[in-house]
Amino acid sequence: MSLFCCPICAAPLTREERAYTCPGGHSFDLAAAGYTHLLPANRKHSKNPGDDKAMVAARSAFLDKGYYAPLLDCLSGLIAADTAALPAPVLVDSGCGEGYYTAGIFRALEQAGKTPRAAGVDISKFALKKAAKRLPQGEFAVASVYRLPIPDHTAHVLTNVFSPLCPEEFSRVLKKDGLFYYVVPSALHLWEMKQVLYDVPYENAVKREDYPGFRWLRALPLRYTVHLDCSQDIMALFGMTPYAWKTPKAGVERLAALEQLDTQIGFDVHVYQKL
C-alpha cells in the first residue's frame, strides 16, 4: 500500500508498475522519472507550477556542493535520535524540492538500523524528477502542501524546510505524538549577501510561533559561514531566497558582479509535537 491517498476521493492508493490506483477507479500515471501527479487540474494555477527546470538545476548543483550539509546533518541526527524507539518510522517531507533533505534523512534512519518509509510532495515536477532519482525507495508526488495527498494519522515525522506552512494539514497527517520539524532562517542569515543587495540591510524577523494542535518542544540553532568562490554559486544561493523576487535591479547587479563571497548561514530547527 502506498503512503499516498487519492486526491479525488481520499481512498488509499496502490502503487502498480505504471500507475497509482484507488478502489474507486481513479488512476494516476507514474512518470518514467518515478513520480506521480496528485494535483487535480482544477487546483493548478499554471501549466507547470513551481520552480522551473533551470531553477531546480541551479539549486541542486548548489546543494550537491555541500554548502547546506551542516543543516542536513543536523536534521538527520535530530530525527534519528528522536525516533530511536521506532523501528519503521514514516517520513513526510512537505515541499521536498529535489529531495536533498528527504534522501539524507532517509539514509540516516537506515544507518541507524531502521526500515523507514518516505513520501515527498512538491508543486514542481522538475524538482520531483530530481527527488525520485535521489531516493528511488521513496514516493514523490506533484501536489499542494495545503492539501497533502496523505491519509490521516500516517506520519511519525513531518519536515518543512523553507516551504509553505500549513499546520492544519501537518497535524492531520501526523500520528498522535508525531514530530514536526520546521526550519527557519536566523536573524543574520545571509547577512553579508544582504549588505551587497540593499543600501540598508535588514535582519530577519525571529519569533517562535505556537500552532494549534501542536506543542513546541525545542529549537536547535545552527550557525556557520560559507565561502562561495564563484558567481554561479552566489547567484544560485540568491535564487533560493525570497530576495530573488523583491530585490531592486541595482542590488542584483552588484551581487552578480562578485566572484566570491563569505556570508553567515543561520538556521533554527524548531521541533513540535502533535497533541
Descriptive tags:
275 residues; 9 helices; eight-stranded mixed sheet; 27% strand; 30% helix; single chain; 11 strands
Structural account:
α1 crosses α7. An 8-stranded mixed β-sheet has the order 4-7-6-5-8-9-11-10, with helices on both faces. The longest helix has 14 residues. The protein has 9 helices and 11 strands. The protein is of the alpha/beta class and 275 residues long. The mean pLDDT is 94. It starts with 13 loop residues before the first strand and ends with a strand. It has a single domain, classed as Rossmann fold (3-Layer(aba) Sandwich).
Short structural summary:
The chain has 275 residues and is of the alpha/beta class. The chain is 30% helix and 27% strand.
Number of helices: 9
CATH-defined superfamily: Vaccinia Virus protein VP39
CATH topology value: Rossmann fold
Mean pLDDT across residues? 94
In N-to-C order, the SSE pattern is EEEEHHEHEHEEHEHEHHHE
* CATH architecture descriptor name: 3-Layer(aba) Sandwich
Q: What is the gyration radius calculated from CA atoms?
A: 19 Å
Number of strands: 11
Q: Can you tell me the residue ranges where pLDDT is under 50 for at least 5 consecutive residues? A: none
Q: Tell me, briefly, the overall form.
A: globular
Helix content: 25-40%
Distance between the termini: 27 Å
Tally of domains: 1
Instruction: Note the main sheet.
Output: 8 strands, mixed
User: What is the CATH class?
Assistant: Alpha Beta
How would you write the strand order of the largest sheet? 4-7-6-5-8-9-11-10
How much strand content do the residues show? 25-35%
